[in-house]
Amino acid sequence: MRHMVIKxxxxxxxxxxxxxxxxFIQATAYPVSFIIExxxxxxxxxxxxxxxxxxxxxxxxxxxxTFYEILFFxxxxxxxxxxxxxxxxxxxxxELPEKVRxxxxxxxxxxxxxxxxxxxxxxxxxxxILSTFSGFYLMFYAFGKSGSVFSFPNLLVGFLILxxxxxxxxxxxxxxxxxxxxxxxxxxxxxxxxxxFIYFAENPHQVYRGVLRALFFxxxxxxxxxxxxxxxxxxxxxxxxVWQSLLLAFIFLVVAVKTWKHMLSKYSSASS
Length: 272
Hints:
The chain is mostly helical. The chain has helices at residues 2-27, 31-55, 67-89, 96-102, 104-110, 115-121, 126-130, 132-146, 152-178, 189-200, 210-219, 227-235, 239-265; strands spanning 61-62, 65-66. It contains 13 helices and two strands. A two-stranded antiparallel ribbon has the order 1-2. The radius of gyration is 20 Å and the shape is globular.
């Protein structure tokens, strides 16, 4: 199985390049609509920046984070949210219950590619992907103002934890959405995982205490999506978070794949 995954990886990379190209053509076919969508995305991002600017009017730190450190945090949250929504959710997992209802999922299952890849990643939303540039700019600007010293190991490890966090996030989305194969009118299921990670990941992990800390570190480990990667890049490496994030990413991905296969095995075609 592992050999098959490695062997097929170049093929799926080529397929995804084609999908991204098609997504770009589709998004820019109507330039006015495309520009309006970009303005909406950027406007939402500005709201978060203004919110934290107001919060830091009378304080220097919140949970150990200075204004420019939290601005870096906001930049990373923009990048992660736009990638997560654009690649996985908007035209993919969100649409799965509707595809099951209409029978469109039957056609997807007949295609000679992996069903999980096709239904969870097969239609990227290019506008969200393009919106990540403002987040990257904000991270670059805030890092320079924060006074943090650049460290390549910190950046590398922070990026590794971020990837693990995205895998965890993706896995939760797959687990919740896969129930659409067996539950009627399961339109809210994809939104549950999406809202959990986007809402609760937008807080530094230091603010969580007691039961919430255990919940968001182990059960629904949202802190590895934005907070821990940001802290690693800005403040240094805490190795316990590295091993924990990688282990949780592996566990949740395995559970997600198995859950998807199990739910798909119980799916009855819309024509039956």
